[in-house]
Every structure is written in C-alpha cells, then in structure tokens.
Amino acid sequence: MRAVRPKIGDRATSDVVVRLRTPEGRDEWLYCHSAVLAAGSSYFADRLSDAWPTCQILGSRYCVEVHCQEPDLSSHVNALRLLYAAEPCSRFGVRGALGVLQAAVRLGCAQIAAACAGYLESAPWDEADEEEILRAVPSLGPQYECVLARLRPIDPAPVTSIFLSAFRHATLSPAAGPARELKSAAQEQLEYMLTEDDDAPLLATDNENVKSQVKDCVSVLLSRFSDFMTSILRRQAEARLGGNDELQQELHCFVSDVSWVCQILSKLEMMKCLVLYWVGISSDVVEVVEVVCVGIDCLKTRLKVVEVAAKVLEAVAFGNIVLPAEKRCHAVNVWIGFAGKTKSLIDQADNDGNDDDGDVDAEIAKVNLDSEVWQGLESAIVSIVLTLPSNKQAEILSGWLQSKQVRYPDLTEAFEAWCYRSKVAKRRLSFLNHIDRLS
C-alpha cells in the first residue's frame, strides 16, 4: 500500500514550522514536514540537519525562520507549496513564475527553479515583463541565463540577412492591404535599425555587401518610377490620359518610397546615386505632377515631391555630392518654381480653410510639411545659387524677382550677396588683368 504524501498545513502530521518574516512585521506560519523540505530544498536540508545548532523548537516541532522582503512573501509561500504538489508554473504567469524562481533559487529548490526557468524561457513577455526579468535573472547564476536567450545581441550575419530581405519588401511595387502594411512596417523598422540613438545602429553602415544590394534594389525602384513617368507623359501626348485618381495614388506611393529611400541612403552615405538620378529627371517629375495632381486635393503628393527635392538639394548644398554648374543651375531653376507654387497652394488652402470651415483648416494643417523642411529647402537653394557663375545667378534672381511666388523661396540673401560680389568684382579680381598683360 502506497504511503500517503503529507500535505502542507496539516498540523496533525507536521513536525516543522516555517516562519516567513518581513521587515514590515508580517509573520506567516506554514506547518510543514521535514522530510519533504529536506528532499526538495538544500537550504532546509542544511537548516534541519544536526550541523545547524541554532534550530529553534516550537512546542514539539522544529521552527525555521526565513526572512524575506514584503513583495517576495507570496513567492516564498508558492515555492514551499510546490515542494508538496508539482503544479505547472504557467498558473502563476510570467511575473509570478519569476518571483517563484527567485525564491526557489534562494531556498535551494533546484527542481522548482528549473521548471520556472523553463517556463519563462518559452512564455511570451510584455515590455514590463522584460524589464523585471532583466533586473532579476542575471543575479541568479549562469545556469538560468537561458531565460535571457531572446534578448541577447544577435550575430552580424542574421542582421544583414534580415535587413536585405526587409529592404527588398520595402522597395517593392505599390501594394494594398496586408502587403502595404508589411511594406510600411519594413520601412519603419529598417530606419530604426540604422538610427543611432542611445544605442549603436544594429547594422554596420560600412558593409560593402549591404551597400551593393541596397543600390541594386534602389535602381530597380527608380527604374520603375521612370517607366511610370514615361507612360504618363506618352499617354498625355496621345491625349488618352484618364483615371487621374488612380494615377495620383500610384505617383504618391512612388514618391513616398523615394522619400523613404533618401533616409536610408543618407544613413548609409549613399545619396550620390539618388541625387544624380533626381537631378536628371527633375523636369519630368514636375511635368508629371502638374499633369496628374490637379487641384488642392493632391497637396499630399506635391509635398512629398518637395520633401524629396529638399533632401536632394541639401546633399548638394552641403557639398556631399559634387555636381557640375550646369546641373546645379538646372536643379535650382526647376525646384524654385515648383516649391514656390506648392507653398502658394498650401497658403491658399490654409486661407480658404480659415474663411470657410475649421475642419478643412485642420485637414490642411495635417498635410503641410514641417517648417524645418521648408527652411532647409530654402537654405539649400540659396547656398546652391551662390555657388553658380555670376551670370547664372543673375538669370535665376531675375526670374525669381519677376515670379508670382517671390515670397517663397526667399532668395534675398542670395540677391544681396550677388549685388555685393558684382559691384566689387573688378576691384577684387584686378590682379587677373595684370596676369593677362604679363602673359
């Protein structure tokens, strides 16, 4: 006949009392059995042995005091209960199992600690769980570090593989539904992987293999964009352009992708390929936008185009990308006009919203660019204009002064610098005439 396993709290058969005490004065008495405690806990095996002379006697029972902090009291109780009846750690949840694990490690309950560690290693955590686990587990010993496996730094090879796979998704053709959501998530996470904040970027930005494959993906994206624009312009020439809403949406997706690619290429120090492409097709982009985006309803797309132009011109203005004077002149001529017209449309929509409906005004505010983008574009244009030959500067400034959108971009700084340079040019460069006479 099998012996009946004793139960915790059974006073009739108990031969030891475990007193759990806290600094706040809590005093929990648990009627236990020395055989069960010694078998499952090395701590109690030592405390109840003859080698431990300070064990107290309470009535006819041994008494073992265990001191713990107030928040850990219930975890110690649960650990003691698990010595009597094995239960799945999942019933305690992640936080509860973590508490039992800490108590089990302290009490030397190896089997219970292993079960808790196994559960924590496989269970899903929320963000608060992660912080608690990171705070507690490292101090428990190396045998429990398996719990932290999902939080360990990853090897470079898998990071590169994930980055490149995600980048291919992020530069795929415009999509709808779940595919679009995956594409947006890929773009967001890729940018995060390369961001240097409190932590270093997850991917090394000097990886030539990564740069090569990124360049290939970007080339495919830009090629599709060029094909799209060519199709639009051809259909316009053949007077069979229709379905502007669909075309506008497709154009918006393309330009949004190019804008996002700018962020990635900037972090990888690869803006040159995009700058050369964008400057070369600037006129086509403006023409396609004017054809497809008619009216105030298309402001979001126009603003995305302005955003890309700002990033491209800033790269040129800062000297990161070197372009011949002709290309710089062409670029500023194209984007001065487009940016000025777009800013005028924004201001007009804003004024109409103030006059008619507050909801309309709020909607317009949502689609406007951050003021820093407008300022950055304006500063880039001024800087580039001032790098051009004097006669080219004069042509650009003359066109700007005669335009309807003279308020933006404001080229006053460039105008003042041109006036000064032109006035003092002969005196400042008089030595050139002297050199010519000697030669």
SSE layout and pairing:
Elements: E1 16-21, E2 27-32, H1 34-40, H2 42-47, E3 56-58, E4 61-67, H3 73-84, H4 93-107, H5 110-122, H6 127-136, H7 156-170, H8 178-193, H9 208-237, H10 244-267, H11 271-280, H12 282-292, H13 299-317, H14 325-356, H15 358-367, H16 371-385, H17 390-402, H18 412-428, H19 430-438
Parallel strand pairs: 1-4
Antiparallel strand pairs: 1-2, 3-4
Helix pairs in contact: 3-4, 4-5, 4-6, 7-8, 7-9, 9-10, 9-12, 10-13, 11-13, 13-14, 13-16, 14-15, 14-17, 17-18
Q: Helix/strand-derived class? A: mainly alpha
Order of helices and strands: EEHHEEHHHHHHHHHHHHHHHHH
Amount of beta strand:
5-15%
Count of DSSP strands: 4
Low-confidence stretches: none
Rg (CA only) = 36 Å
Give the CA-CA distance, first to last residue: 123 Å
Dominant shape: elongated
Q: Specify the number of helices.
A: 19
Q: Which percent range fits the helix content?
A: 55-70%
Largest sheet: 4 strands, mixed
Mean pLDDT: 87
Strand adjacency order, main sheet: 2-1-4-3
